[in-house]
Design brief:
globular; about 250 residues; alpha/beta
C-alpha cells in the first residue's frame, strides 16, 4: 500500500478532475509468468495506474496473458497456421479492438521483457495490418503505454523496446508514457516484497504521470476522431503493383 499522504494526494487530483473520461476504455496486458491467482508484482505497480483511470470513470480491464492459450506467431489467428487452439483473436476483439488505451506491463528477466510480453508484441503486430474505417492501420487513434517491474536492471531498456514496438505498429505514445521499478542490483526484493516498491515515490510519481498523460492523449484523439486521415491512408497505395513506389511491396 502507498503511504497515506501519497495516496491522499493522488485521490485529491482524481477528485479535482473536470474532464469527462467515462467513455474511454483501457486494457492492461500483464506479461507476468505467474498464472492467476498467484501474486504478481507487476499487478502491484499497475494497480496505481489502474486506480487513476478507474477513478476518473474509464473502463479498465486487466489481462494476465499467461492464463490464456495463446500460441506464438505474427498472424491474427494462428489456428489458420497449424495451431489447434488460439484464444488471442477473442481477446483482441473483446478488449483490445475497442480499447482507447493499451498498456503493456512486464516483469524483467535477465534484463529484458518477459517471454509472455514479447509474444504479445508479436500477436499485436499480427493485427496491425487490419484497417480502421478511415483506411488507416488498426491501431491508429489508440494510445500506448508501458509499466515495468523487476528487482535489478532493465527498466529503461524494456520501456524503450516496448514503446518503439507500439509506436511502429500505429499506437500514439504520449509524453512520459512509461514507468518502472527496479530494486538494488542483483537478486533481492521485488515490488510487493516488504512493501518496498510503494515507498519509492519516484516510481509512484512517474506511474501517475503516465496514467494522466495516457488519459489526456486518448481524450484528445477520441474528440478529434483519431489521427487525421491524410497522407496515411492505405487505400492510396497499391500493393499488388510491382511498379508502384511502395517500400513494403513484396513480389
Amino acid at each position: 500500500m502507498l503511504p497515506e499522504s501519497v495516496q491522499a494526494f493522488i485521490d485529491a487530483e482524481i477528485a479535482a478532475n473536470t474532464t469527462d473520461f467515462a467513455d474511454l476504455r483501457a486494457v492492461y496486458l500483464n506479461g507476468t509468468l505467474k498464472r492467476s491467482p498467484e501474486v504478481s508484482h507487476t499487478d502491484g505497480l499497475l494497480a496505481i495506474s489502474r486506480h487513476v483511470l478507474e477513478g476518473v470513470g474509464a473502463r479498465v480491464d486487466v489481462v494476465r496473458t499467461v492464463d490464456y492459450d495463446i500460441p506464438p506467431g505474427v498472424y491474427p489467428d494462428m489456428r489458420e497456421h497449424g495451431w489447434e487452439t488460439d484464444e488471442f483473436p477473442d481477446l483482441y476483439h473483446s478488449l483490445i479492438e475497442p480499447a482507447d488505451i493499451v498498456v503493456m506491463a512486464t516483469p524483467i528477466w535477465l534484463g529484458d521483457q518477459s517471454s509472455v510480453t514479447r509474444k504479445m508484441v508479436e500477436r499485436l503486430y499480427g493485427w496491425s495490418g487490419e484497417l480502421n474505417p478511415a483506411g488507416q492501420w488498426s491501431y491508429y487513434g489508440k494510445v500506448g503505454g508501458v509499466i515495468v517491474t523487476g528487482n535489478e536492471d532493465g527498466g529503461k531498456h524494456c520501456s524503450a523496446q516496448l514503446l518503439y514496438a507500439l509506436s511502429h505498429i500505429g499506437f500514439t505514445i504520449p509524453p512520459q508514457a512509461d514507468a518502472y521499478w527496479n530494486g538494488e542490483a542483483g537478486p533481492g526484493p521485488s515490488y510487493l516484497d516488504d512493501n518496498r516498491g510503494a515507498q519509492n515515490h519516484w516510481t509512484t510519481r512517474n506511474t501517475v504521470f503516465a496514467a494522466w498523460n495516457m488519459l489526456h492523449t486518448a481524450r484528445r484523439l477520441k474528440d478529434a476522431g483519431g489521427i487525421p486521415a491524410h497522407g496515411n491512408v492505405t487505400f492510396n497505395w497499391d500493393l499488388s503493383n510491382p511498379e508502384h513506389p511502395n517500400p513494403e511491396y513484396r513480389s
